[in-house]
Design a protein that fits this description.
The protein has about 270 residues and is α/β, with parallel strands linked by helices. The chain has ten helices and eight strands. Strand 2, helix 3 and strand 3 form a beta-alpha-beta unit. The chain is globular.
Length: about 270
């Protein structure tokens, strides 16, 4: 019987997933991912119903997103606000399809996110909080947000340093349109499972510490962590949201280095 100590990353499969081209292929991929979620939960005695699967559709064409919707997906994750906004505009006939923006946000794109997103998972500065809040007030909307934490310590990654999160949270009640739901992180992209696991452990422990001192109205129920290659490890360490792209949609056309942050490369998150 496998135990958490046996769990490996699947980063060696990265870029090798076949592209899903039919509703049936999406259904198979979704079922396979859900089976992995259930097995990871079983190993640590968790209820799979407490883990939300967020399919990530970044870089994929509208036709693929419509197939995913037909296969049952009702929320999709996108990294780039402009790409996500474009897709939202094109797919407004799917009234119950919701959107989660999971990538870094520049303040000049805040108006796009405020217009259509149901969720924003990469809040990491007061400047962004102010910009999104201002646009949400104009739109008459509110937005679920996750605070992004840099648990790997890599300079190439976005997110707050863990020690900066308490003060950041204390400032967030001033933004009434932002509903803080939890924390998000992007782990090391490594085949060394223990190093990856340490990122998830750090986020879980930070959340537990912060719960003791979080301001009124700041809810830290959610931990968004884990992607196609490592979400089983994330679930074993308490993830409530896993962001899975390639294991559902198939490999992306560009090499890993285009998407994964590294020194000298654009910072970007890669589910």
């Amino acid at each position: 019987m496998l135990t958490p100590a046996d769990t490996k990353t699947r980063h060696d499969q990265h870029g090798r997933y076949p592209e899903a081209r039919t509703v049936e292929a999406f259904q198979r991929n979704l079922a396979a991912v859900q089976a992995r979620i259930h097995e990871a939960c079983r190993r640590v005695g968790r209820n799979p119903a407490h883990v939300r699967l967020l399919p990530v559709s970044k870089t994929k064409p509208e036709s693929s997103l419509r197939l995913a919707y037909a296969a049952g997906c009702r929320m999709l994750g996108e990294n780039k606000p402009q790409e996500a906004h474009r897709k939202w505009e094109a797919m407004q006939d799917l009234a119950d399809l919701r959107w989660s923006v999971i990538g870094h946000l520049q303040t000049n794109k805040a108006k796009l996110v405020a217009r259509f997103a149901a969720e924003f998972q990469a809040l990491d500065s007061l400047r962004v909080a102010e910009a999104v809040e201002r646009r949400l007030q104009v739109e008459g909307r509110s937005l679920d947000v996750f605070v992004q934490v840099n648990t790997s310590g890599e300079a190439s990654k976005y997110g707050l340093a863990p020690e900066d999160v308490p003060a950041f949270l204390k400032a967030l009640p001033a933004f009434s349109a932002l509903r803080v739901r939890g924390l998000m992180t992007l782990a090391l992209f490594s085949s060394e499972a223990q190093r990856v696991r340490q990122c998830f452990v750090l986020l879980r422990n930070l959340r537990e510490q912060l719960r003791q001192s979080a301001p009124a109205g700041i809810v830290l129920d959610e931990l968004s962590m884990g992607m196609s290659g490592d979400f089983e490890i994330a679930i074993e360490e308490g993830a409530t949201v896993v962001r899975v792209g390639q294991a559902i949609f198939g490999a992306r056309p560009l090499p890993d280095s285009h998407y994964w942050p590294s020194e000298g490369n654009d910072k970007e998150s890669l589910p």
